[in-house]
Specification:
Largest sheet: 6 strands, mixed
Number of helices: 7
Strand content: 15-25%
Helix content: 25-40%
Number of strands: 14
Structural class: alpha/beta
Low-confidence stretches: none
Distance between the termini: 19 Å
Order of helices and strands: HEHEEHEEEEEEEEHEHEHEH
Shape: elongated
Strand order of the largest sheet: 1-3-4-5-8-9
């Protein structure tokens, strides 16, 4: 719809449920190549039909941002923040301040007026809009926990016929279990089958640095890619893209 109506409007507001909004905003940020207009995702924690709700303000502010703010990127507007779409995560299942961008400042804040930080906003592209619609969903995310069965992962990787990418949510800056043999075997097996393996951190803030721990260095030597400070939402949708 955005592609078909792109030349007719100054900006776009996408309204959807909040549970997968960070994934949708991240995906669209990659799909809309050379985006020169503002695309804003928003929703609410309380339905618009309720007397007391957060939907009205979120919607009105999103419309104002889409129409007047020159943000050539996909944004997410919620509560008092306008955030970069592929930096956003849902951090609260019941509160009105439901979204945050832990590793990047808000593009704008809402108080008595909208205060923008233009220096944080993407620059205008030089090419024409191109929409990439072919996404590959054959991606698996594994969150490592103490006592996790490495053999199960090795079995999965060995017998899969369709998996294209594996995302490992690791401890801290890229640490893993001390008994690392079976897990590294699973990683090496995945790489031998052409499966991309990416390491992310389980921490809300910060990112992965595979050079910090011995385990991380061994993962890197086995062909694991560091996801840096990317969110799981951004990493998985970028892999799909």
């Amino acid at each position: 719809d955005i592609e078909e109506s792109y030349d007719e409007y100054n900006g776009f507001v996408v309204i959807m449920g909040t549970d997968t909004m960070a994934y949708a905003a991240s995906a669209l940020s990659f799909m809309l190549e050379n985006l020169s207009k503002t695309v804003v995702f928003t929703g609410s924690q309380i339905p618009f039909a309720q007397v007391y709700n957060d939907a009205r303000r979120n919607l009105l502010v999103s419309m104002i941002v889409a129409a007047t703010c020159e943000f050539p990127e996909v944004c997410l507007c919620f509560n008092d923040k306008i955030m970069r779409g592929n930096r956003a995560v849902k951090v609260n299942s019941t509160g009105l301040d439901a979204f945050d961008t832990p590793n990047y400042p808000p593009l704008a804040m809402l108080a008595c007026s909208i205060t923008s930080r233009k220096e944080l906003v993407m620059t205008q592209p030089t090419g024409e809009l191109q929409v990439k619609k072919q996404l590959d969903s054959k991606i698996l995310v594994i969150k490592l926990v103490p006592g996790f069965s490495d053999d199960s992962l090795l079995t999965l990787v060995t017998h899969t016929t369709s998996l294209r990418a594996l995302v490992l949510e690791m401890y801290g800056t890229g640490n893993g279990p001390s008994n690392k043999g079976p897990l590294l075997d699973a990683v090496r097996k995945a790489r031998s089958k052409g499966i991309i393996v990416v390491a992310l951190t389980q921490c809300v803030r910060g990112g992965v640095s595979l050079d910090t721990y011995t385990m991380g260095r061994e993962f890197s030597n086995a062909g694991v890619i560091s996801g840096g400070d990317m969110t799981t939402e951004a990493c998985t949708t970028k892999l799909a893209y």
